[in-house]
Amino acid sequence: MTDLTTDNAPNPSAIPAEELARMTDDIVSALKTVYDPEIPVDIYELGLIYKVDIDDDRNVAIDMTLTAPGCPVAGDMPGWVENAVSTVAGVASAKANLVFDPPWDHSRMSDEARVAMNMW
């Protein structure tokens, strides 16, 4: 649902901008606490998070992937992500969805992740 402000410009969220910015920062921080046990870099810096959507009711939907479809923690990692994001103040619920399109590759990693993994 799109609300209209008094100047008739669309308002992308019913959540006040300041609160949305704080929640977004806190969600990123929460995502950075989740690690693939086989890789010493958090999933956010690895580029495994494709999309984070916060709806007007403060439900958070996360599209994420894995470094490989056969990853041994495929069944557990979405729950870890949901648990981490659920701790953020203001979040009503969190749901992580595994997606494999586009496939993950090293180009999605941040510079910080590349340094940590000595992949320059």
Highest CATH level, the class: Alpha Beta
Query: Order of helices and strands, N to C?
Result: EEHHEEHEH
Number of strands: 5
Which radius of gyration do the C-alpha atoms yield?
16 Å
CATH homologous superfamily (4th level) name: Fe-S cluster assembly (FSCA)
Number of helices: 4
Q: What CATH architecture would you give?
A: 2-Layer Sandwich
Whole-number total of structural domains: 1
Structural class by SSE content: alpha+beta
Q: How would you write the strand order of the largest sheet? A: 3-4-5
The helix content is: 25-40%
Low confidence ranges: 1-9
CATH topology-level name: GMP Synthetase, Chain A, domain 3
Can I get a quick summary?
The protein has helices at 17-31, 43-46, 77-86, 111-116, and strands at residues 3-4, 10-11, 49-54, 59-64, 93-98. The chain is α+β, with helices and mostly antiparallel strands. Helix 3 links the parallel strand 4 and strand 5.
3D structure, described in words:
The radius of gyration is 16 Å and the shape is globular. The N and C termini lie far apart (44 Å). α3 links the parallel β4 and β5 (93-98). Helices cover 29% and strands 18% of the residues. The strands form two sheets. A three-stranded mixed β-sheet has the order 3-4-5. A two-stranded antiparallel ribbon has the order 1-2. With 120 residues, the protein is of the alpha+beta class. It has helices spanning 17-31, 43-46, 77-86, 111-116, and strands at 3-4, 10-11, 49-54, 59-64, 93-98.
